[in-house]
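Researcher: Please predict.
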Amino acid sequence: MDWDSIRTQFPSLSDWTYLNTATFGQLPRCGVEASAEHFARRVRTASADFLDWYDDADRLRGSVARLLHATAQDIAFAPSAAHALSTVVAAMSLKPEDLILTLEGEFPNQLYQGNVRETQWENFFEAIDSKVKLVAVSEVNYASGFRPPLAQIASYLKEREIPFYVDGTQSLGALQFSVEKIPVSVYAVHGYKWMISPPGAAFFYISPEFRGRIQPGVVGWRSHKDWRNVDNLHHGSPEFSDTAEKYEGGGLPNSLLYAMEASVNLLLVIGSENIEFRVLGLAKLIREKLQALGGQVQHAQSQIVAAKFPGQDVSLLARRLKEQRILVSARHGHLRVSPHFYNNEEDLERLDSALRALL
């Protein structure tokens, strides 16, 4: 791959050493242009073609489905991954004694749901009893980079008919994922990180089996299966379609989705396998550099590198690096470094040199 040419899609990288995709991904030029073109099109057409915007959104469904090895009918758009999880939990109508199982140190989306049982990974399977009605975890932990064995979990839960929700916000776009290999019930992604898309552009896969069990939690003018017949919108209780679109309810953030489509197309052109190889390779080099500086790196399976530096205030380190236009993060005592495919070895050398001086 011509990574230098691809890097020109991200103009911020000429002024910043950006190693912070786990917080925000950089939006490519093509995404900015696609969003701007949508607004220009609205001016040209006076929005007379607004139904065509939904056809274009369906095209994006197909592109997202390619990333997941799913079908377009399995994909619903949402404002955020939190919206997707809340939709699922609300639709399940859990009883007071029913539990949602998640891991300790999970992202707040999972922790803030009612009736949550937290467990350490070492005790994960022992924590699954008759009270557990949903398991919800992240594919990659946002603070530590821990990557649980999703295929093993999915197989265990499928045998027990327990729905499995996975948040791929900190993984998809960097790491490959297939619903054929890992049969989850729901896989939700907010695209503003590794999918290099704007905030507010999110989606979730929901398996055909699971969407047959739960009703939409948000109901609006697009809930009825014949919503495109805008001249005679259905009045009365909506008849839902069999597709994941039924969970969207109202209108879509079209300008954001056009930007996401451009970003997804860029990811598809580069290739998920190429991106994962590139990102994990950069992360490996970062781990080696941080360890050489005395950092204690916990996990080596993901693209998020989290290191502890005994005796150091990692929040202060991150602020000092920012003063030098080097962006990383501090999360729960870890210095978190998160490279994407648009980074290069020069970025890593600048981080290494600056950290060496600070430490």
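Model: Residues 3-19+272-358 form a domain with the Aspartate Aminotransferase, domain 1 fold (CATH 3.90.1150.10).
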